[in-house]
Each structure stands twice: as C-alpha cells, then as structure tokens.
Amino acid sequence: MRTSDFDYELPEQLIAQKPAASRDQSRLLVLRRPTGKIEHRKFPDLLEYLRPGDVLVINDSKVIPARLRGINASTGTRFELLLLEEVAPNDWWAMLRPGKRARLNTRINLLGHDKAATDVHATVTEINSEGHRRVQFSGTKNIFNILEQLGETPLPPYIKRAVKDHLAEDAERYQTVFAKIPGSVAAPTAGLHFTPQLLKRISAMNIHLCPVTLHVGLGTFAPVKAQDLAEHLMHEERFQVPEQTARIIQAAKAQGKRVIAVGTTSLRVLESAALANSGRTKPGPGRTRLFAHPPFEFRIVDALLTNFHLPRSTLLMLVCAFAAPGSTRGRELVLSAYAEAIREQYRFFSYGDAMLIV
Length: 358
Fold this sequence. Notes:
Blueprint: E1 27-31, E2 38-42, E3 55-59, E4 61-63, E5 67-71, E6 78-88, E7 91-97, E8 107-111, E9 117-127, E10 133-138, H1 147-150, H2 167-173, E11 181-184, H3 196-204, E12 208-214, H4 218-221, E13 237-241, H5 243-254, E14 259-262, H6 264-275, E15 284-288, E16 303-307, H7 314-323, H8 329-343, E17 354-357
Parallel strand pairs: 1-17, 3-12, 3-14, 4-11, 14-16
Antiparallel strand pairs: 1-2, 5-6, 5-8, 6-7, 7-10, 8-9, 9-10, 12-13, 13-15, 16-17
Helix pairs in contact: 7-8
C-alpha cells in the first residue's frame, strides 16, 4: 500500500489545542469491526463495553520535560532541543532547530525557565543520516535529573502556544494519571482520558488493569516519507513487559477473555513481545520497530482504545490494520469513521477525543 492511501482532509479548527475541561469528558466514537457500525458516546461509557475478566493494558511511561532552549554564546543563535533518547548519562540523541546551525562541536548554553543562561552546556558530537544530533551535556552530573528545572513539556507542533500561560496545565494534563516511569518525549495519549475515579470503577468490575512500559520516542511520531509503506523504517523504541502482566494476559487468552490495549503504544508492546515468543506474551525488556499496517495479523490484542491520528502517520496505519486484521478493508472502515467524526465535530489528535475499536 502507499502512504497517500492514508490521507484525509481535516479542518484546522478540529485540532484540539487544549484538553477537555475534565479528563473523562472527552467524546468516544465506537467502531464495531464486524459490521462497521459507529456509535457516538462519552468517554465514561467505555465501561459499558468492558466485561469481567477483560485485561486493560496501559502504558505507564511518564513524559519528561524534553524540550530545552539554549543559545550559542559566540554567535547569538538561539536553539531549541528536543531530547529523543538517552545513550548514557549526559549523552543524548536530540532534534535541534535550526539544524543547519547545529554543526559538529557547536556549544550551546542552556537557558532556564526565566530565559537566563545556566551553567549547563550541550555540545554537538555527532550527526546521523537523518539530521539528528548527538549531544554531550556538561555542567551537571546528569541532565536527566535537572530537566524539571530547565525543560518544557514537549507538546506536538500542531498545538500552538502563543504565550506560556498553559505551561503548568500542560505539565499536568499532557501526562496520564498512571504515569510512573520517566522516559517518554510524547504522551501515550489514549491514556489521557482516564481519571483515578474511573480506574477504580474499572477495577471494581473485575477487570485486570495491567501496565507495560514503552518510552515514546521518534518511532511513534516520525512522519512517513516513503511513498511505498514497505520502504518505511521505524525507529527503535524501548519497552518492558512486567512478569505479572505477561502472566495475567496469558491466563486471560487461555480462558478466552479479551485483551484491550489502551493506545497504540501498548498494542505495539504486546504484539512485539508476542512476535518474539511464538505468539505468547513474553515478559522482560525489549526494543521494537514494529510497523503494523494493512494487512497485519494481531496475535494478542482484541480491542483498541486510541485517539484520532494525523494523516499519513504510522499510527493511523496501525489503526487501519487493526480495524480489519489480515486484510486491507480496515483502511476504508477507519477513514469512513474519521469522516463521520469530522462531520460530528470531534476533536482530533493528542488533546482530542477517543475512539474504541471492538
């Protein structure tokens, strides 16, 4: 299939710029895979689609303040750094803007939240084929430990912030209530709709709430530049499957119970772990380049809760694959559902509404 097969037109006003007033007051579009039937609900109605014995798998990765700002003390050039992945303490791969000014050995003085210069510097030590910079930090024992003092919430570029009035709100709301393990540079957004109260109601229904960890990096949100999907190479992302999560999932599958992935990141963890272990959910650490697009067979996940994704994105392609496993029919189902969501004025992308595929 071609990248252009996953394009659609979205009115700009439907790109959510702020979260809903309350996390669980988002809307929920339900797509039933066997029939293509669409239902329009509110997010708390999710409970009506859950059954005792279901396993709800969440990604407990925590977003770090990965956006840094700095200045070249020699030239006055201002830089924005987006941390992508830690190689070692004080050694990171990052995206820098403006990239053309970030040549090898460029030394950048990092700024604090007050825009004043700090004693922390970043030096460009390597440039890869994609234009990403490897940077070495100095002036601190470990940049990871002081990101709260220097960094900002790494909101996607389609969320516009003319002023900094929403910094505190974004720091809270661009984070799930079950976020636990720091490491992501983007939120696993399907989890943003849950509240502690809603999670308690779910647990009371005899539904297993199981964590996995995938630190969201470039592999999740990098654009597809190739015209042919077979030519797109996903970036690796780190994940961890706890032993108890693996055990509960295996027992549920043996009993004919459903496994429901909260978000595409949770799904990619489960399917990657299964691919590495002959269809069983394997506990432990791993790295994934899984690129699920039609046609793709899923071994573990029976239902998917997700947000509405960007045109031509790997996330939209994954959702299309899940809507009709093993065939290409899911593209038509999902794009039709997206067209319905646009007509009904749903809010799209990270701070937008949710979609349940069952």
